[in-house]
Recover the amino acids of this structure.
DNA sequence: ATATAAAGTAAATAACACTTTACTTTTTGT
DNA sequence: ACAAAAAGTAAAGTGTTATTTACTTTATAT
């Protein structure tokens, strides 16, 4: 699943480590999600949505298949 | 995490099995999610949102802690 | 150019989403 | 009351999300 975390981070001038701290996950988790290695859990997606004050759908992009 | 699946199902007069079929998961998975035993994955949440034509936040309710 | 910060990557492990099978309890209809 | 459908529950197993530690590569600043 694609996401706009890198852009949203850039807008706030945050490093991956900054975002990781804000979301209470490891820096590697942020990196893996940004690189599309795996999808965040729903609670983590909610946390990101609250942090950026955006709906989940405006951060994560589920281009649906079948 | 709370959710409104039971109500949304009722509005369409669907059983847990009907919803499970529509979302391509097992009936037990629907039951467990409805009973709050675990949270759906983000892709499954997106699928439910599409099915009910609602934003994720209108189906799942993450009352945030800390 | 070189030091430093940031980002990328990888392996091992832990935690959780989801499945299958199977059984019990509750609800609904006649 | 009774049968049938729906919902609830549980255990064992699989795959994925997320963690930690640690190392390499890329970007930034002086």
């Amino acid at each position: 699943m694609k996401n706009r975390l890198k852009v949203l981070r850039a807008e706030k001038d945050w490093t991956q480590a900054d975002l990781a701290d804000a979301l209470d996950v490891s820096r590697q988790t942020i990196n893996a999600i940004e690189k599309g290695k795996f999808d965040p859990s729903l609670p983590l997606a909610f946390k990101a949505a609250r942090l950026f004050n955006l709906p989940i759908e405006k951060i994560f992009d589920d281009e649906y298949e079948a």
The interface with chain A takes residues 1, 39-43, 45-47, 49-50, 55-57, 60, 62, 64 of chain B (CB under 8 Å). The CA atoms of residues 6 and 47 of chain B lie 16 Å apart. Strands of chain B lie at 2-3, 60-61. The mean pLDDT of chain B is 95.
